[in-house]
Amino acid sequence: MNIIEKQLVSKDGKDETCEDAIFISESYIAVIDGVTAKGKLKWNGKKSGRQARDCLLCALTEAPHDLSARDMITYLNDCLRKEYGEDTDFFKENKEERLQANIILYSAYTKEVWCFGDCRCIVNSEVRLHEKAIDRFTSELRSKFIEEEIKRGKTEEDIMLHDTGREHIMPYLLKQTDYANAPGEFGYDVLDGCEINADHTVIYKPVTGSDIVLASDGYPVLRDNLSDCEKELAYILENDKLLYKLHKETKGLVSGNLSFDDRAYIRFTDC
After folding, report:
1. Is 264 helix (H, G, I), strand (E, B) or coil?
2. Which of 2, 96, 97, 104 could form a disulfide with 38 if both were Cys (CB 3.0 to 4.6 A apart)?
3. pTM above 0.85, yes or no
4. Integer Cα distance of 126 and 136 in angstroms
């Protein structure tokens, strides 16, 4: 596989806190997006999103090269489950404390791109964002609340220091875990070490020799080259720092950070 370009950037500029990852081996290329922690538990000092990311990186290193899409997603989810040890029942009941991650990967064996969750890709020149309905709902709620906060006299700088919009939707974000791997309009797929439906894995078949882009949702606008992705992100951060107008998100730019979220991007071909 020919790697054309790649980039991994933590939202706060610290590599040790980044919850995104890029994995490259002879068998697989993957982008992992650890879900931002909503609970309080730490894993050897790490937040759950970082622990999930690290666990999946290790799992991919040991994954057989000839897995099917369904078997790979099941295997990765089982690796998260093993992290719970004897506390599986606790994590079944306390969903916000689970290890959670989204993943998109390319298999050199099957020549396919597999997506489970809301990572994104460009395959055969088509952009696939895999956005969640529940995120659109909570992002809209946050946007409306921030609009009211600004009408009441708060500045964008005030909210960058203390995001009252995210604070307002946090009860919904905690409740959102009830929809993880559940059916219905707001149901969504995520690796969490509990019950998932691996048959929901989205599979794409790239044209041989074509460029493939895999990315996390830290890039709100996905383009077929890294420079344009960065330009789109920079424009949003310059003109909508709180991400409640141009591109509505469940969180905005925190004062002192580089972006609103970690971001990962890789473009490659498999000839």
Report:
1. strand
2. 96
3. yes
4. 22
Nearest to 1 by CA among 211, 227, 202, 204: 211
DSSP state of 100: -
Catalogue the E-assigned strands of 37-134. Answer: 101-107, 112-116, 120-123, 126-128
Is residue 255 within 8 Å of residue 161, measured between CB atoms? yes
Q: What are the pLDDT digits (tens) for 118-143?
A: 999 999 999 999 999 999 999 999 99
Show the domains of the chain with their CATH numbers. Answer: 2-269 (3.60.40.10)
For 119-167, give the DSSP string: -EEEETTEEE----HHHHHHHHHHHHHHHHHHHTT--HHHHHHS-HHHH
Residue in this structure with the two tokens 């969750």, named with its chain if needed: 117
